[in-house]
Every structure is written in C-alpha cells, then in structure tokens.
Amino acid sequence: MNQAIRERTKWFMDARFGMFIHWGIYAIPACGEWVMSQREMTNEEYEQYFQEFDPTAYDPKEWAKLAKRAGMKYAVLTAKHHDGFCLFDSALTDYKATNTKAGRDLVGEFLDAFRAEGIRVGLYFSLIDWHHPDFPKYGDRHHPMRNQERYKDAQIDFDRYLDFMHGQVKELVTNYGKLDLLWFDFSYDDMRGETWRATELIQMVRKYQPDVVIDNRLEGSGENHGSIATAEPLIYSGDFASPEQIIPPEGIIDENGEHIPWELCATMNNHWGYCNFDHEYKPADMLIRKLVECTSKGGNMILNVGPDAKGRIPKESVQILEEIGAWMERNGESIYGCGISEIPKPEWGRYTQNADTIYAHVYEAPLGALPLYGIAPDRLEKVYYLADGSEMTRGEAWNTVLFQDVAFVSLGANPVFTYPLPDPIDTVLKIKIKKAAGCVREWTSLPPFLAKLFYSKSSSTGQ
Ligand code: GLC
C-alpha cells in the first residue's frame, strides 16, 4: 500500500462505522434495487416508477440525526444505482429526481443535512446503467435485456456511454463541494479497469477532489479486490477493499504482507433497496459484535438502510440503530481510532487497540478471575469498565500463580453474579498497558515459592 492511500484513508479508518443508504424509484416495487434486472423489465415498463415517485416524507435531517445517534461517522447515498435513475440534478439526463414529483435535488439535500451533523459524506455511483441506450444489453451478465434477441445485433457506442458516465461523475465531484468518499459499483467480466477508462476517470476525480477516499470497484467487486491487494496498486485501485456481506477471516493483507484498509458493506435485512416483505433483520447485539469484529481485524463496517418510497427509513432499522447507538455512546472509544491489537484474539471475546490502550470485548463470563490472555502481569497498569469508567480490581490470587504469564482481573467475587456480564452484548474493559520491554516485574511474576507468601487462600475469590 502506498503512502498516499495511507494518508487519505486516515480519517476513514478511524471512523470505523458508516451508514449506507440505498434509495431510488425501486422503493416503489419494494423488492430491492435489482428488480429491473430480476424481472427483465424494459425501460418503458420501469418508467411507471419514475412517474409515480413522490417521496413526501424525505427528511435527510432526520436521517442524519439518526446516523449520529447510532454513532456513525460517515454516510454514503446512492446518487445513481444500476437502473440509471439519478437522485441528483444531472444536466446530462432527464432521468432524475428533479423531474419527478419530488422536484428536488435529493443528493444536495442529503449532503447538506449530514454535513450539518458533522458526518462525513460520500456518494455511491453505479458504473452500470441499464437505462442508457449505449450500455451493452444482449449477452451482458446483468442487463434487464440480456435475453432479448432483438438487441443481439444492436449497435451501441460504448464510448458515448463512457463520456456520459464520466460527465456525471464530474458533475458530482464539481457541483457539490468537498466529498469525503466515492463508492463506484461495480466491475465484472470484461467490464473493469480501462474498459471504464478508469485512469482518465480517476485523474479527473483527483483533480477536483484530491483527498476523496475511493472504493476498489473500478477494478473489483465483492468477488475480486483488484490491484489494491497487490504489491503495486494501479492508479484506479481505489483506497480500500469492499468485502460484501462477509467479514474477511483475517482482515485483508496485500502481497507485501501489509494490512490494507477495508470496509464490510452489509445489509440489515437481506436487501439493500427497500423490500416490504423482508423482515429478517439482524439484531442489534449481533451487529455490534460484527462491528467489533471488523475493528479487531482492521476494517470498517458500513451498515445499510433502505428508505421506502416515501423517504422513511424502515422502523425496524431505526430501532436497531437506536440500540447500537446506546452501546456506542458508552463504548465507542473501543471502536473509533482502534484497530488490530498486538495481542491475538482471546477465547472469551476480542481485543481492539488504540496505541497503548487495549480494549477487551468480553462476551463470555469467566468462572473466577478473567485471564487477560497475552498480557503479562507486569505489563498491566490499570483496568476499567469502559461503560462507566469504574476501576477494576486485579484478579491475581493464590490460584493464579500457576499461570504466571497472564494477568487476571476480577469481575466480582462470585461467578454467579458475573453471569450474565454487566453488558450481555459486549462488556468492554479498558486496559492500560506498559510499553513492552524493560518493565519492572511485579505481581505474580514472582517465583512461585515467593508468590505463595504473598497470596493466601483467604483471598481465594479473586478480589
Ligand atoms: C452489489 C449490488 C448492489 C449494491 C452493492 C452494495 O454490488 O449490485 O445492488 O448496491 O452491492 O455493496
């Protein structure tokens, strides 16, 4: 990974938690953003949703407040999805929100509202456009007209499409102030890299938005990281990898063995775009632990909401985000600015780390004192419950002297009362450690015969 990527992504990797917003006229058929392709609809058939779109409840200020309460530090809205419909006021097409009953530039309002809440802003832009006449149709893997013989010999001018696509990206990067993030989507088959005239596109973007963080999908997708994971990323490699609906087993490491920035994109139910029959939502406690998992592996999580046709975020999503927010308010310090710990994963949960502070995310209650795996007793300076700042007691006692390499901390005298843990979702311990080398040895690092003199059986409950 080069220095420029590292510097550009600094804020991004500190932010850790973002909101993805998939919204468009597909919210009317209400079965996800791929409906046009899945039902192999013509533009004429799909046009009804363009005519009907009337999001009277669209209030991005409310969305922004919700994202803020959830502890999200950035948000990415679909300026245009694969169906080609633009939420922004593009001069290059009539197929846009300002020409619907909405009559508003929905992207501009989103950007203002989120910036006002201090949330970094990004736009998703589909490289694919099923509405444009010069996009490949027959035989394409995804196009709604892929099976229509009548397009078999149809002449298209793909360069005209690329001019249009580049022009729209230029509108986004020049008409809306500073963008923090651009999320291009996506490459497949031969449709990747220079097929998109990617070098030219990135040079143009960087001219107007030198610091914008860009995903890796001008080359890749959820199937393929592209050159960002190689020793020599191309100019259009993007700045981060974008695993989709899966958390990489061990983070993402490039050919040099270096951890590279990545972001898990995940839905809350099973759809990105609004789907009115999909009520299979992931519970908040699960999503909190997945955010911790991403952080502990050096990645971000961008969690999706799919507002309905009126512009409302589904109530299930709101509820989940409020619950995540309640946990983040007390424990966000163990996420923001944190990353992979120098200490391997403990069996009762996970570690995240920020400089000399380690955060223990305890999921499973111990019987007796909790072993802080990987932390030697003489490295441990202080431990607190992160949620309320209260100091914790060391747990070394007569029965821990057999395990001299490991520091122990007490979660209370009686294991019965420590189960479930103070926070059953994730009890976070804030651990201050001393620098690795040259520490004075203390506590149970004493030789066993001396330790026995110090710890009597009367303190056997670990206090
Ligand atoms: C996929 C889908 C798309 C969605 C995206 C989000 O590439 O095509 O609908 O927007 O993933 O990551």
Question: Can you tell me about this structure?
Answer:
By secondary structure, the protein is α/β, with parallel strands linked by helices. It is built from eleven helices and 14 strands. The strands form three sheets. Strands 5-4-3-2-1-7-6 form a seven-stranded parallel β-sheet. The chain has a four-stranded antiparallel β-sheet with strand order 8-9-14-11. Helix 6 links the parallel strand 2 (about 75-80) and strand 3. Helix 5 (about 60-70) packs across helix 10 (about 315-330) and helix 9 (about 285-295) crosses helix 10. The longest helix has 18 residues, at about 160-175. The protein starts with a helix and ends in a 9-residue tail after the last helix. It binds alpha-D-glucopyranose. Alpha-D-glucopyranose binds next to loops.
Structural class: alpha/beta
The tally of strands reads: 14
Describe the oligomeric state of these chains in a short phrase. single chain
Number of helices: 11
Q: Name the bound molecules.
A: alpha-D-glucopyranose
Architecture blueprint of SSEs:
Elements: H1 3-8, H2 10-15, E1 17-21, H3 35-38, H4 43-52, H5 60-70, E2 74-80, H6 106-116, E3 120-126, H7 158-175, E4 181-185, H8 198-208, E5 213-214, E6 262-266, H9 284-296, E7 299-305, H10 315-331, E8 349-354, E9 357-362, E10 370-372, E11 380-385, E12 393-394, E13 407-410, E14 427-433, H11 448-454
Parallel strand pairs: 1-2, 1-7, 2-3, 3-4, 4-5, 6-7
Antiparallel strand pairs: 8-9, 9-14, 10-13, 11-14, 12-13
The structure holds alpha-D-glucopyranose.
